[in-house]
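quick q for whoever's on today - can somebody do inverse folding on this one?? i tried earlier but teh output was garbage lol. tokens:
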């Protein structure tokens, strides 16, 4: 009983963090808090519904506004993803809107690119200059030679503009550098991607298996709430991680695996489940293709052999596998989100999908559900022009199984090609700090130096803005309309982002920038609406949704549809065989292993340790590490070092060190966190700190991105496995 009580309190950290944010009022600083106290004595409080942008989860929130100032943010109780609650980041979202470091006016570069020297400009001047350069690239080289990099929901209208302009080279780093391998892996196996929010039935699961997925630190709001529900309901928890994470503290079984060996463990679990007859025989017989090949394939991965690879004892491998067999089909092997680890990531996640099939958990309660959907048609406009150049023309390596353009591939295609005039000539960057989000930042900086034109739209002066020719100050998500969020979920829903306050300074929303550039690029016919409200009204009318009611509630939900096979969902697998493909003919056709095979990823050199990185509950990577509200709780990262390693190096808790990677690249100073909660062959830090941009206030901590000078490319879909770097200490 005591154990269960402690589990129920595992959100204490998040709750304390949220309380701290609420006390700060979402503004930060003594002067701002004093101003808040003054506003409380005057003016009526207005409540405005919208949805969050501090991460990709898009939780519904209610903003309380008094005398034109946001005084509080709360979760929208009507919204299926927030359920009336916000994570610490969402509670502190006004720290972004009221950040004194915000970009306040358009700027044009005056010195060499990368020197961060600009002059203020008017919007007309900045947009005219941008349109002139875009037109020049289009006329001289073709529209395909302009690449658009983006992150965040605000990019939708800019994507529309760039497609109308004629470039197909539109990419988000969140694909090749984060979630892409899992989407390809599940598509290869089931014929469907996982999607976002993921179709994981955490709250109903009987057994939850987390491999390097840090629920409780990676604050996907809905999933963390459901994790608490699962614990309350007595679900069995398995955590596989080189680090004893917050989630590991709630586990029935914690497996401190050697980094880079997860695939071997997954294959060994399948070995036990198949050989002991613990798989769902009826499900596999009815729906799966390639079982006999898989059975033969996993015979080599005995728990005894895999013990020598992973460091996990055979009895622990068998015990956890048997429990999965006993709890099937309500077992959830979580697919993770950031899964670009070692370069064989599609195969590792495919092993998760295959184990899920053996347990009969796809389309079953407590496993993966079939989400309901609703159709909200786009507003019809003129058809986009057909590109004249292919990826091959631009020397962008083709990965036929990748469903999106790769950001890293576009970066590679920026370098001049001998005897060719065809390579990327300009970058339009929205909301993504490419110097921190792409691996090997020195290569990114060299690519930026090769370009003829770079335009960046962002809220803050991130490192990427220092490389821009033109900077366009973006309005924060609390100051603008964006497109509606149409979500597939247990209850499908449509949610609205609308301005809570007017845009501050000279910032402008991206839809306005897109429309203004369209005028200058002779693309107005692609924007047959005067403003975003008119566009949204047209789209919602087509779907029969009451716009005025949506403004009031922030979300409209639709009836729950059947989610499980037991509820009558017809089993349909959109693979070539029409079945769950344990053996993949598509991979075989591509010259890849049709079933996952474990490969070693090397050990650290003597005196070096594998560098791992992740998130903290109060930050979303580099997007929030300058936030003055959230930084009241956490304003720098630390390097987790095993106690025995610290003793060997004479390192003390709180001591500052410099990290140096295998290529001689050094970090900023970072505090040491001496702990027994991590293996002695790796170290760990939170990603997103160590900013060097002169325009940002917070330069504390170390930038792990600068140490990621190596990566392994996934041969199946092109993702960049970045957990292949090693570091040592310089006191």
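ok took a stab at it. sequence:
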């Amino acid at each position: 009983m005591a154990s269960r009580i402690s589990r129920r309190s595992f959100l204490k950290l998040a709750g304390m963090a949220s309380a701290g944010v609420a006390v700060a009022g979402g503004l930060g600083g003594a002067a701002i808090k004093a101003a808040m106290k003054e506003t409380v004595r005057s003016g009526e409080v207005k409540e405005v519904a919208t949805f969050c942008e501090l991460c990709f989860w898009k939780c519904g929130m209610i903003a309380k506004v008094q005398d034109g100032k946001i005084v509080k943010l709360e979760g929208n109780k009507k919204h299926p993803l927030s359920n009336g609650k916000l994570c610490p980041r969402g509670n502190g979202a006004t720290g972004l809107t009221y950040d004194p470091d915000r970009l306040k006016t358009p700027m044009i570069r005056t010195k060499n690119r990368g020197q961060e020297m600009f002059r203020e400009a008017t919007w007309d001047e900045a947009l005219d200059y941008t349109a002139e350069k875009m037109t020049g690239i289009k006329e001289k080289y073709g529209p395909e030679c302009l690449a658009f990099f983006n992150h965040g929901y605000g990019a939708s209208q800019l994507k529309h503009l760039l497609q109308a302009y004629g470039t197909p080279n539109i990419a988000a780093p969140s694909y090749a550098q984060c979630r892409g391998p899992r989407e390809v892996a599940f598509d290869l196996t089931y014929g469907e991607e996982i999607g976002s929010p993921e179709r994981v039935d955490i709250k109903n699961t009987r057994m939850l298996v987390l491999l390097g997925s840090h629920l409780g630190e990676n604050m996907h709001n809905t999933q963390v709430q459901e994790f608490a529900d699962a614990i309350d309901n007595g679900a069995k928890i398995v955590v596989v991680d080189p680090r004893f994470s917050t989630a590991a503290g709630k586990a029935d079984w914690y497996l401190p695996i050697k980094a880079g060996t997860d695939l071997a463990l997954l294959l060994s679990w399948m070995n036990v489940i198949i050989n002991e007859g613990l798989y769902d025989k009826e499900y596999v017989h009815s729906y799966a293709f390639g079982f006999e090949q898989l059975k033969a394939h996993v015979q080599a991965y005995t728990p005894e052999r895999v013990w020598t690879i992973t460091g996990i004892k055979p009895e622990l491998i068998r015990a956890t596998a048997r429990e999965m067999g006993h709890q099937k089909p309500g077992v959830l092997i979580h697919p993770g989100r950031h899964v670009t680890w070692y370069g064989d990531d599609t195969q590792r996640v495919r092993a998760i999908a295959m184990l899920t099939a053996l347990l009969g958990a796809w389309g079953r309660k407590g496993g993966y559900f079939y989400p309901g959907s609703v159709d909200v048609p786009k507003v019809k406009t003129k058809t986009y022009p057909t590109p004249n150049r292919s990826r091959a023309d631009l020397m962008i390596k083709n990965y036929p199984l990748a469903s999106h353009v790769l950001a890293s591939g576009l970066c590679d295609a920026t370098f001049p090609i001998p005897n060719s005039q065809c390579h990327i000539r300009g970058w339009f960057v929205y909301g993504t700090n490419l110097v921190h989000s792409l691996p090997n930042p020195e290569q990114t900086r060299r690519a930026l130096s090769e370009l003829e034109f770079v335009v960046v739209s962002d809220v803050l002066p991130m490192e990427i803005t220092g490389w821009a020719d033109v900077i366009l100050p973006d309005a924060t998500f609390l100051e603008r309309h964006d497109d509606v969020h149409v979500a597939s979920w247990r209850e499908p829903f449509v949610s609205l982002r609308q301005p809570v306050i007017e845009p501050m300074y000279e910032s402008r929303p991206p839809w306005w920038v897109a429309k203004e550039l369209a005028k200058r690029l002779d693309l107005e016919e692609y924007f047959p609406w005067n403003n975003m409200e008119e566009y949204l009204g047209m789209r919602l009318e087509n779907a029969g949704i009451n716009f005025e009611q949506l403004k009031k509630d922030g979300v409209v939900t639709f009836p729950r549809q059947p989610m499980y096979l037991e509820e009558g969902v017809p089993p349909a697998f959109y693979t070539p065989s029409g079945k769950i493909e344990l053996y993949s003919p598509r991979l075989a056709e591509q010259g890849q292993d049709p079933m996952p095979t474990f490969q070693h990823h090397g050990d650290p050199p003597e005196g070096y340790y594998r560098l791992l990185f992740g998130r903290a509950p109060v930050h979303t990577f580099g997007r929030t590490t300058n936030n003055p509200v959230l930084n009241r709780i956490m304003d720098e990262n630390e390097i987790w070092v095993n106690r025995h390693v610290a003793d060997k190096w004479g390192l003390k808790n709180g001591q500052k060190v410099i990290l140096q990677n295998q290529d001689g690249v050094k970090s900023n100073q970072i505090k040491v966190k001496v702990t027994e909660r991590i293996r002695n062959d790796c170290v760990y830090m939170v990603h997103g700190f160590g900013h060097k941009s002169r325009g940002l206030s917070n330069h504390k901590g170390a930038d792990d991105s600068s140490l990621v000078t190596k990566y392994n490319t996934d041969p199946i879909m092109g993702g960049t496995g970045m957990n292949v770097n090693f570091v040592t200490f310089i006191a």
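fwiw The chain has 23 helices and 27 strands. also Residues 1-41 have pLDDT under 50 and may be disordered. so keep that in mind when u check it
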